[in-house]
Specification:
Length: 678
């Protein structure tokens, strides 16, 4: 045996394969090295031996067996653990990658394969001019979706030629920093807040970027090219288990692409991973708003998220008919019109369409006086062995609790029952056409969830009580500043659902050409004839026809956010002590345990009550501790447990953002919360 000091003092041969394009020059080189030679010295020796004059600054050493980059150039070979049996590759750090965007367009660009995915996504978003890159990540397509695509390619007679937008000349993708002007809060608006097109005065911002006017419009405007055949060929999850498969492919944000087996020119999906869209502003976020809208649109069309027939018609009227018509109109495509609207006036008008809600009156309201609601509502309790009972009671909503009494006169005494809504699930049970305005409450109890329905008389009553329930479930009262915007949001969604048929709409020949099957999911196209669907979409369209393009997209996103399943990412798990599999739904503020067979929620745990969470990497088990001595542990069966661990940490990281801070992110905090100690 030789001691380490003796081993280090002797030179030995190290085989390095060089990734270069010169066919006449060999690719494998044997270097005579010693253990105390640092990585930078190895690269210098190698370049001297190659004798090709070119820029080697983007090259680094990749250790094939260990699947890691040797980027710390001051470290010695001994410190890295590199010995004579190591296979090293000298290759570029930035390589071509194909990315499928939420709008189903594919872009090809240079991405760092040596940076962690969190940093790589940040660079990609700078190229695409998408702010708040922390909300997005990279996803490998699910096996089932790939199988369906291969089957489609096999059956198609003509070769499939994909339309790819090439952004490979980007300064950011070449490793240079992006223009800080794109992210400055004091800069001139980049986009027209009405149509979402680039403002002509700011096209110069893109002069050093591949995002020309044409490319920018491809990313910022909706291009309705979805045919019924395209929709039929898409992978459509049928069960919760299918939906869980879609979330199994998220890449690890704290490791590089190369470390995760991604090769040059592979295709990945760029998607919004975290459903907390912070600080959406039509002036700067045309690309971001359009891509969120497109992700919502495809989620609804492919039935990744469930919605009622009435809601589907609203989405059809907004997404397709209205947005596609405006996107194709010459008005929306006009890049030359200069907007000379006063900045303050424009900002005030934009407040109407941001997702923060409407104007909040009485901002300095008396915070000691918590408002309360009191009204006649009907209580519905489902019975297992009999029909459900519906009875009218006098309800009082105060703080985060609902109490009900026999009548108004008895409200001074003890209530029949007091329901604490903190941590409950609130689900709308609405059919505007049938005048049904119900609120389904799933209240956590010791052995699961207690199901209670409240029935309201009209839209206004429903909006007030629904908003109060939603806030109470998050532990907030009606004194919170978000209460009135929430009421306004619910009323605007109900107004969109409340339509009457206009004879003028049917007589319009342009409307008759509509293909409703392009805008409606397969479940409903099978149920009705195209003419019936077209007529109903046109009815729904009457309520949204006055909207501008950007407002229609924001309303669509808002309606998507109102769906009960919005923002839930599903995973199949096995809880500690359980003998059967369950589904775990991860949302921005809670975890939900769901029965895999029925789809019913069993228990909800809020992040606000979470004390700590960790992973036992040996048995791949996630353990979480909540207030009141509640603790859970589970293993993940449909994906790596690191993905769920990162989801929880990621949502907690995003909850720390505030509008006062500048847009630089605390990347170290993100990795501390999501990385784990593997």
């Amino acid at each position: 045996m030789i001691s380490s000091s003796e081993y280090g003092s002797h030179s030995w041969e190290l085989l390095v394969t060089v990734d270069h394009q010169h066919e006449e020059v060999q690719k494998e080189f044997l270097l005579q090295v010693t253990g105390d030679l640092h990585i930078g010295g190895v690269m210098l020796k190698l370049v001297e031996q190659i004798k090709i004059s070119q820029d080697w600054s983007d090259y680094a050493l990749w250790w094939e067996q260990k699947k890691c980059w040797l980027l710390k150039t001051h470290w010695t070979l001994d410190k890295c653990g590199v010995q004579a049996d190591a296979k090293l590759f000298f290759t570029t750090q930035h390589k071509m990658l194909r990315l499928r965007l939420p709008n189903m367009k594919t872009v090809r660009l240079k991405v760092s394969f040596s940076s962690v995915v969190f940093k790589a996504v940040s660079d990609i978003c700078k190229i695409l001019n998408i702010r708040r890159s922390e909300e997005l990540s990279l996803l490998k397509q699910s096996e089932d979706a790939l199988k369906k695509k291969k089957k489609k390619d096999k059956n198609s007679k003509e070769p499939v030629t994909e339309d790819i937008l090439n952004l490979c000349d980007s300064p950011v993708s070449s490793g240079l920093s992006g223009s800080p002007g794109l992210y400055s809060k004091t800069m001139t608006p980049i986009y027209d807040p009405i149509s979402g097109t680039p403002a002509s005065s700011t096209i110069t911002w893109f002069s050093d970027s591949p995002l020309t006017e044409q490319n920018c419009s491809i990313l910022a405007l909706s291009h309705p090219d979805c045919s019924p055949e395209t929709l039929a060929e898409m992978y459509q999850p049928r069960t919760l288990a299918d939906k869980a498969k879609l979330n199994a492919g998220w890449l690890d944000s704290s490791r590089s692409l190369m470390e995760q087996g991604i090769l040059e020119d592979d295709q990945l999906l760029l998607r919004f991973k975290y459903y907390t869209f912070f600080d959406l502003n039509p002036k700067y976020d045309a690309v971001r708003i359009n891509q969120i809208y497109e992700q919502a649109r495809w989620a609804i069309l492919s039935e990744e998220i469930d919605c009622t027939e009435e809601e589907m018609l609203i989405f059809a009227a907004l997404q397709a008919y209205h947005v596609s018509k405006l996107s194709l109109s010459s008005e929306a495509q006009d890049f030359t019109c200069e907007s000379e609207v006063d900045e303050v006036e424009a900002a005030l008008s934009n407040l109407e369409v941001t997702l923060e809600g409407g104007n909040t009156s009485n901002i300095l309201e008396d915070i000691t006086d918590i408002p309360k609601l009191a009204d006649n509502l009907r209580l519905v309790r489902p019975r297992k062995l009999s029909l459900k009972t519906i009875k009218p009671y006098w309800f009082v909503f105060k703080d985060t609790s609902v109490s009900y009494f026999k009548n108004k006169e008895s409200a001074q005494g003890e209530p029949i029952e007091k329901l604490n809504l903190k941590g409950c699930e609130v689900v709308p049970d609405v059919n505007v056409a049938a005048k049904k305005f119900g609120i389904k409450l799933l209240i956590p109890v010791a052995d699961g969830m207690n199901e209670v329905y409240l029935r309201c008389e009209n839209e206004n009553q429903y909006a007030r009580w629904m908003a109060a329930c939603v806030l109470a479930s998050k532990g907030k009262t009606m004194a919170d500043s978000s209460y009135h915007p929430e009421v306004h949001k619910i009323l605007s969604f109900l107004k969109m659902k409340n339509w009457t048929m206009s004879p003028q709409a049917v007589s319009d020949p342009e409307n008759i050409d509509m293909k409703p099957e392009c805008f409606i999911s397969l479940r409903y196209t099978k149920k009705y004839k195209p003419k019936q669907l077209a007529a109903r979409i046109l009815e729904a369209h009457q309520n949204v026809s006055e909207m501008t393009l950007v407002e229609a997209k924001l309303r669509f996103i808002q309606a998507w956010q109102s769906l009960p399943e919005f923002g839930l990412s599903y995973y199949i798990v096995r809880f500690k002590g359980s003998k059967k599999d369950d589904v775990l739904g991860v949302s921005y503020n809670r975890l939900i345990r769901i029965d895999i067979a029925t789809g019913d929620p069993i228990t909800t745990w809020r992040f606000s009550n979470m004390k700590q969470w960790n992973v036992n990497w040996e048995i791949r088990q996630v353990a979480i501790e909540f207030d009141q001595n509640v603790s859970i542990a589970f293993t993940c069966l449909s994906a790596d447990c690191k993905i769920i661990h990162e989801y929880i940490g990621g949502y907690i990281f995003l909850s720390t953002r505030s509008k006062d801070q500048n847009e630089t992110l605390d990347e170290d905090l993100f990795h501390k919360l999501t990385g784990g100690q593997e």
